[in-house]
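Action item from last week, closing it out:
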Amino acid sequence: MKIFVSGGAGYIGAITSAELIAAGHQVVVFDNFYQGHAAAVPPEATLIQGDLADINAVRAAFAAHPDIDGIMHFASYTLVGESMEQPLRYLRDNVVSAGNLLEVAVAAGVRRFILSSTANLFDEPEQMPIEADNKIVPGSPYGESKFFIERMLHWFERIYGLKYACLRYFNASGDTPERGEDHDPETHLIPLILQVALGQRPHITVFGNDYPTPDGTCIRDYIHVVDLAQAHILAMEALDRIGARRYNLGNGNGFSVLQVIEAARKVTGHPIPHVIGPRRPGDPAVLIASSAAIRAELGWQPRYPAIETIVASAWEWHRTHPHGYAD
């Protein structure tokens, strides 16, 4: 298939593009480089610089590639904290950009769509791990924007016959030897820890150590980015058979902040000092997503579930790219 990957120069999008190519698919990457990097795009992919907010740019991309078979939509503002400060960047911009992409897609006859969604849809989980049919209570304007897009997909299926899957997950992590996580600013735990190991920051701050967990720190679901990429590919290849689906993606285990730090100490051989800071408002003690449905229906299995494996893959990239793609 020929797949249009929005945000394909970003962290998850670029690695998914590489996995798509390795699986024999053609890839057209569309990215505005807000958090993406041209160097991250596989050389075998076609790269188009453009912004989904500009519907004419999206139309031009599809006109240049009239044989698109499916879309993977990664392009998005994704910072939960920022969305609490700039809600319209999420509630308006994320939704309008997705709407532009959907409008052009159905006009071009594309009927397959994979949404990179979020487990931030579940701010008040009824059970743990969180199943896909759990009550949706978005935890932020970011989560709300993804819910809006999921609802758009529901109506586009009913009206236009669009087949889609929404893949919801928490903490994408890990890297490949060729591609890694390079954000500005960086907000994710594992690359921040590795910056300490690289001497780029003096310590890592742990936000609270008095949670009702075994070591008092928050437990989160860390899932290797290659495992996420494979889930996207499996879903795309199965859409004609499965129709509309919403899948939660989880590693099957949760790891505490202190467990992640300790794994990084073992992997890097560096002491990685940490300090305890106050809790961040709104941080739940435990968040783990269940992947039971996608495992049962598509046979998806994480290949890299161990936190040491995840951290080691990230360390391999970061120690050889200490300044990200600028190296």
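Closing note: The longest strand covers residues 26-31.
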